[in-house]
Design a protein that fits this description.
The protein is of the alpha/beta class. The chain contains six helices and nine strands, in the order βαβαβαβαβαββαββ. A seven-stranded mixed beta sheet has the order 3-2-1-4-5-6-7. Strands 8-9 form a two-stranded antiparallel sheet. The two termini are 26 Å apart. The structure holds 5-O-phosphono-beta-D-ribofuranosylamine (GRF).
């Protein structure tokens, strides 16, 4: 049976593109069905068009509450029988409604070693803090921000003299490798969630 995925993104979309390209390696077993975005002019939409992936723009202003928006997202996901949702720079909280409907089937990427530096400025925050090691985390989404069970985590060493931009580049490079790797683990069902712990096998 084909595994269907959807990506939610709000911005540049470099992770979206890395994931879209990695999906091709599954030779038809996995399909990236759609991009859903909340930003009309997001660059990720251009990437979707170029890669031939249908994109759906849902204007948050047209919904009375965040829950109403999430119910519309759910409808879209149901209509296409989506198995997994990947958040790739989607700049909104997901409601407990959507989280529950897709329990342990929504993945998120975060540009730090969680639980350090949660929130929208993780790379800059880590840089300003002067950390020597930061990194990237892929986790299942739960009701709290940047909090759910961790699937994969890898470090980036902050080299002497690096500018914030250099750190950002290194983080993004790692993200583009790690998110496809996590997707592979998930679609091949090589994991088990036990509370906060995600066992991945064979162990990494
Ligand atoms: C990434 O750094 C990701 O970790 C964070 O948002 C950023 C999205 O970048 N959640 P892009 O839009 O995929 O280029």
């Amino acid at each position: 049976m084909k595994i269907k995925i959807a990506i939610l993104a709000s911005g540049n979309g470099s992770n979206f593109e890395a994931l879209a390209k990695s999906v091709k390696k599954f030779r038809g077993k996995v399909k990236l069905e759609m991009l859903i975005t909340d930003k009309k002019n997001a660059y990720v939409r251009k990437r979707a068009t170029r890669l031939g992936i249908p994109d759906f723009f849902l204007d948050p202003k047209k919904f009375k509450t965040p829950l109403a928006l999430d119910k519309e997202i759910f409808k879209l996901l149901k209509k296409k029988n989506i198995n997994y949702v990947l958040l790739a720079g989607y700049m909104r909280f997901l409601s407990p409604f959507l989280i529950k409907k897709f329990e342990n089937r929504i993945l998120n990427i975060h540009p730090s070693l969680l639980p350090a530096f949660k929130g929208g400025c993780a790379i800059k925050d880590a840089y300003r803090h002067g950390v020597k090691i930061t990194g990237v985390t892929i986790h299942f989404a739960d009701e709290h921000i940047d909090n759910g069970p961790i699937i994969l985590q890898k470090p980036v060493r902050v080299k002497e003299g690096w500018s914030p931009e250099e750190l950002e580049k290194a983080i993004h490079r790692l993200e583009h490798r790690l998110y496809p790797q996590a997707l592979k683990i998930v679609v091949e069902k090589r994991f088990r969630v036990r509370g906060r712990r995600v066992d991945v096998f064979p162990a990494i």
